[in-house]
Design a protein that fits this description.
Elements lengths: L1 E6 L3 H14 L2 E7 L2 H7 L7 E5 L7 H8 L7 E6 L13 E6 L3 H19 E6 L2 E6 L3 E7 L2 E6 L4 E3 L5 H8 L5 E5 L2 E4 L3 E5 L2 E4 L6 E2 L5 H14 L1
Parallel strand pairs: 1-2, 1-3, 3-4, 4-5
Antiparallel strand pairs: 6-7, 8-9, 8-12, 9-10, 11-12, 13-14, 14-15
Length: 233
């Protein structure tokens, strides 16, 4: 289950849209806002996983809101909503996964829900934490560390999750993220999605003040994996 937000200056459509989303039973929380400025003011405190975003709004249009959302450490998936199909040609950008024409809400929404399921499933991972099973977005993982047989997942915004289990190699394998995780030393594994650069024996991660050290035994493999990842992305 994921959180959704709807931003549209038409209160009547907001109510209709929220009702249609509730009927899908897919979202754990649905928030609405008829004021894009107010939505942006609160965005850093409580950002959604999926944003249904009206394009045509006075003062601040949907493209401006989307641009602000992309600066977040965890940008939402965006579905542009419009009353006029001509805007769809302009509505491209990162994290945009679909378009919804208001007059075709009931017929288009089921296909969009399938698309959201596909995108979120691909971008999330389920982990067995000490507090129970939780779902984490892959791009939120900075690195994993093991100290005194306690395994920790370090996330963006300074958050951490303690994993259940004590064997580091098994915990890493259970994540099933072989394409983006690489071990840099005996006790740390980094997420290549968040590696900014590698200088000599140091790995610099986005949002982490101090670099992590690469062991001499892992260095060639880490450099190869980092280079391959950058080529793919």
């Amino acid at each position: 289950m994921i959180n959704a937000a709807i931003v549209d200056d038409d209160p009547e459509f907001l109510e209709i849209m929220a009702h249609e989303l509730e009927k899908t039973k897919f979202f754990s929380e649905i928030k609405t806002s008829s004021d894009p400025q107010q939505f942006l003011a609160q965005l850093h405190q409580d950002f959604p996983d999926v944003l249904f975003l009206d394009i045509e709004m006075p003062e601040i249009n949907g493209f401006f809101v989307a641009q602000a959302c992309r600066k977040l450490s965890q940008p939402p998936f965006i579905i542009y909503v419009t009353a006029d199909e001509q805007y769809m040609a302009e509505a491209f950008g990162s994290h945009v996964i679909g378009f919804l024409v208001k007059s075709k809400l009931e017929t288009h929404l089921p296909k969009l829900i399938d698309k959201i399921c596909e995108e979120t499933a691909h971008c999330q991972v389920s982990v067995e934490a000490e507090s129970g099973r939780i779902v984490i977005r892959q791009d939120q993982i900075l690195y994993l560390s093991c100290f005194n047989r306690s395994i920790t997942v370090h996330l963006k915004e300074g958050k951490v999750v303690k994993l259940k289990g004590r064997v580091f190699s098994k915990a890493v394998k259970a994540l099933g993220l072989d394409e983006i995780l690489v071990q840099i030393n005996r006790s740390e594994v980094v997420n290549l999605m968040n590696v900014e650069k590698i200088i000599e024996n140091s790995v610099y991660l986005s949002g982490v003040r101090l670099p992590l050290l690469v062991s001499k035994y892992q260095k060639s493999e880490v450099l190869r994996r980092f280079s391959d990842f950058k080529v793919r992305t």
